[in-house]
Fold this protein.
Amino acid sequence: MMEQTLSTPDSMQTTETTAASGAPDIAALNEQIREHSGFVDLIRMELEKVIIGQHSMVDKLLIGLLANGHVLLEGVPGLAKTLAIKSLSETVHADFSRIQFTPDLLPADLVGTMIYNQREESFKVKKGPVFANFVLADEINRAPAKVQSALLEAMQERQVTIGAETFKLPEPFLVLATQNPVEQEGTYPLPEAQVDRFLLKVVIGYPTKDEEQRIIRANLRPEGMHKPQQVIQPEQILTARNWVRKIYMDEKVERYIVDLVFATRQPENNGLGHLQQLIGFGASPRASIGLGVAAKAHAFLQHRGYVTPEDVRAVAMDVMRHRVGITFEAEAENISQEQIITEIMDHVQVP
């Protein structure tokens, strides 16, 4: 079981001070995080005026934004994926662009190109829609590999080269890519190495009956839909990211993260030998890094200055579901990544 040092800030402070382990003053850090994370509730309040239900999706978008990562959303059309990121950009007063991926899309349509100006007899750079704070890559699997690679390179390097010039992308920069899990005809599925660059893969489900009734009511109002108001500036997001990194993570929580990731690679060491035939490849080191930073961002959403194993478990599925490959045997038995990860989380000992 977890020691009492992770249960309350005061006890953590006492233990860390006496241990002289170099850990921060948890009580003071808690107070600072509580102060700097207040805007999260304002964003949630504004988004709730527009998006009914889907609280998990909203939180995962905020985690991606605070952790400086990108989010891959999978769900059927009409589940407010576009509305969510557009509304989020309005609460932050940031630039938003939507790119509809199609089979005939070219990399230049995404990042920009050189345009010849006849009057001045020179080439000028015309920047593409990727130069925005919030970019919605709608149905990313409908574009060919070279277009996907252009976007994923921009996501990884945070810069774009057009001609001989290199341009930095604006900060904050969040890509929300969507894909439809139902219609796969004529699509170009993202290779594992490229999917790995997304911090989170979030699977969106249908709303409940009550939520759907409220959705109908909200869309049929005479005055139309609510519009979210700006509540923070982009600079506050950049400041919040620095505070997310300062959130304290105990060594036992770090070990728990490593144990979870290694269980996907060597399940037999955790009493899960039967999973060996079902797992094609385990999670990469990006999963360990992603679990750490996403767990810190989750703690920030809870206005807390330290990470608990519950924070790790809250983000583990979304961080790892696209980083674990399954074999043909697993597919033949209709066993999904989610089932495998759930079994691993049930068996790996929680500190």
